[in-house]
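Cross-check.
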Amino acid sequence: MPAHLRPQGRIRLYDLSGACSTYRPFGMIILKNLSLRRSAKVLLQNASVSINPGERVGLVGRNGAGKSSLFALLNGTLHEDKGDFSIPSQWRMAQVAQDMPETTESATDFVISGDTALAEAQAEVTAAEESDDGERMAHAYMALHDAGAHDAESRAQSLILGLGFQVRELNQPVNSFSGGWRMRLQLARALMCPSELLLLDEPTNHLDLDALVWLEAWLKKYPGTMLVISHDREFLDAVTNVTLHIENGQLTRYGGNYSAFEDMHAEQLALHQAAFSKQQDKIAHLQDFINRFKAKASKAKQAQSRVKALDRMEKLAPLLANAEFTFEFKEPQNLPNPMLSIDNASFGYPPPDDAPPGTLPTVIVRGVSKSVFAGQRIGILGANGQGKSTLVKTVARTLAVVEGEVLEGRGLNIGYFAQQELDVLRPADTPLEHMIRLARDTIANGGAGQFSSREQDLRTFLGTFNFNGDMVKQAVGTMSGGEKARLVLCMIVWQRPNLLLLDEPTNHLDLATREALAMALNEFEGTVMLVSHDRALLRSVCDEFWMVSKGGVEPFDGDLDDYQRYLLDESKRLREEIKQAGKVADAPVVKAEPAPVAAKKPVASGKVKSLKQKQERLDKSMAALQVEKAAFEARLGGTLSVEEITETGKQLQHVIDELAIEEGEWLALAGEIEGLEARA
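Predicted model, tokenized:
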């Protein structure tokens, strides 16, 4: 149906964050006695549940329980085998595409194209102009205005910047970004789409902490119905008010967020379990550790917050007892103190192999002087690109120190979990081959590992990490992200380390395994250095925090709540700076400053000055266009004839086009200036 003939009952309003506000439509999602299969596997059996308009629902359950299949049912790619399923026909749906986009479109244009209502309105304007029908053109221009054409670019850029991109990247082609950043663009595209139903499947997987905080703030303002699959408990707690649990083919609805569900579900398990021996053993083990920790804990803010986190773990005991996978780190054979001494060190990357002779290494972090002591539990914070992973890789010996020294304590044994599992795994090898090679290398280096290096013993050890039967001979490259993560954990545990370096260890772990990891880390007697966007894990494990920022590493005096406040304050400050500069309407994100370089050469001040003068002229021109645009919009809001509406709509569109061109020129100048200053 053409846009000008559609019912005009929906009003869309946009706040400064780019979030769309719309009335909550009537109707609800209803599943009644529904059965759902994938091949021979029954995922849902006579399941019934209803979801009301405006509810924010967290969908939880073990891996393979059917969470993604339920999403496929909602979006129409999978159909029920039995029972009734209905969703209001007038609801528009938005979800994150899982394919990797391959396009030369700019990041901004790619995200704008996610606004389906705007695309339809633009298509109708084109068709109306070709028809030369004045009344149709008038309706088309009004529909284009209602669809938000006047601020589409600023809304899209607000989303892009919020998800961690730099201003200079707004007009870069999509295929110039890495896979993780392209998935962020897919997320921005989904948020750009007007919808009454939003489906989000693991939206935090490719986000660092500052982008995650921004996304939470955005989703809290989303007025429609939202379903989220996530293994990040704090994210679920922040953005959901209903939890759906898939277990044994049934859907159970719980009022409240994930923590509320966890409490209620644990109570149910405790009431219905016939045998308590396993559960009681775990409770006793856990309580013993809690008591030991409380006896040692200082009154520091971080320590107190950790005690609180551990207190709630007793309630988790029924869940952990029922989990299909738990593990523990054995007591280290020795604890050198200090573990590490870092003296005026610089961390970064060597020049590429094809670089000209004399090319200097790229320094990310410099001038670091730190000591790491036995028993420390350090959370490493910082915006994306500031050097967190570079620091961890250097300590893990996968990168060489650029300058200075990193001195290791006698007997240091590092267990390293890389952010990209394939940095430590070989895709063509099997889990058993990995363990055999690890055992051989460990013995060659004078270590003994945790258990025997006999093949059968290694098979048995793999079995404790759910690598059973034929899985021990399955190529790692064919495994899921969660299975690869489990294998890396298995290899680390076998080595019996005294220093754990963990770089985003939870990316592919389900909630139950995350809880098992948190408990194992809390019982670990050695030292932990942890990079993670999982705030529940950071709160539970870490006593202190380091901030990697502006080319250095400094202690962060506070806890995670203080850090989130810091991020939001920085976001507000930078947003105001951007507004003052006239860049975009809103950019709610912490933008990290580039790492300082050792010495600056004289800037090509003449060229920079000339470019900045051009920017100032564009600022004035864009301000005048904004005034002109506002005048046309106000005119369209009054009582006009069809001819006047048509003419005013054309004039408004012309101003919008001119403004878009000048904004593009301004951003190009900004990128050029930034490049000149960076090279100086």
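The mean pLDDT is 77. DSSP finds 21 helices and 20 strands in the chain. Passed to J.P. for a second look.
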